[in-house]
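Supplementary Text 2. Reproducibility record for the structural model of the 300-residue chain.

All settings were left at their defaults, and a single model was retained for analysis rather than an ensemble. We include the record here because the model underlies the residue-level annotations in Supplementary Table 4.
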Amino acid sequence: MPWSGAGSFSRTNGINTGPTTWSLDEAGGIGIARDRHETHDNDLATGINAAIAKNGENAPTANLPMGGFRHTNVADATTRSDYSKVSQTQDSAYMYGGTSTGAANVYTILLSPAITAYTAGLTVRFRSHQANTGTATLQVNGLGIVNITKRAGTIFLNGGDIGNGDIIECMHDGTVWQLTAQRGGLESWTPTFAGSGSMTTTAPSINQAHFHREGEIVWFTIQATVTTGGVASNQVQFTLPVAALGTGYINFAGFVNDVGNLRSALGIAVSTTVVGVQRFDNTNFTLGTVTLYIQGFYRA
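Retained model, structure tokens:
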């Protein structure tokens, strides 16, 4: 006899049913009947086999409703198909790889239980064993070596983005690891220079070119020297560290040392990636050595 929808199993010998199966046979004048005993015992075997054995010898064949109750006093999960204990989840046991290892700019960690593939949304944490000095990679559980990036997943790390002993959190976006929390401080970039019109710029010397991003706002500072030549014009142009949302979002100002003459300057948006610095009086630069001292901000 199958289990009822209410979760009860009732005995039967094929004729009589319930807890008084044999009494009903006796009242009906039935002696010991081999076929009824066989049916009854097989019915009990069916019921027993439909139950879950506490020693794990059989397994459920359908979803098991818990009726609002819990599994209690469970052991720690050791494989990816195990139940998770609340304590393991709260302690981030599955995400934390301990202190990383690896050569310069290489971070290697082991998670337990081990992951078997990188998937979009996979998040890991670890304590770095070194500061990075440039582009860095992360490898988890012996899977592929993958670049660590920041923000859109297309900007590689600069030196110092990961410090020695930092707690690092990365999420895999399906292609690369992205830092979900980034260190404060300035980042550097290498701008390229040009002149407007037929004016040329050569021999750039960059004293500093730093930027800091806060949400959509990029703050930047640049101090650099170029040698102008060709035909004098009114703009020395340089590239931005991150593309702007539009030319109307770029604002900056500063000073220029135009062949020994210190003059105030203002910024002109050439495109979303290039800006021009011109003297406040909008006259042409004197051909020769021009030093830029510029600070500004824009939306990106």
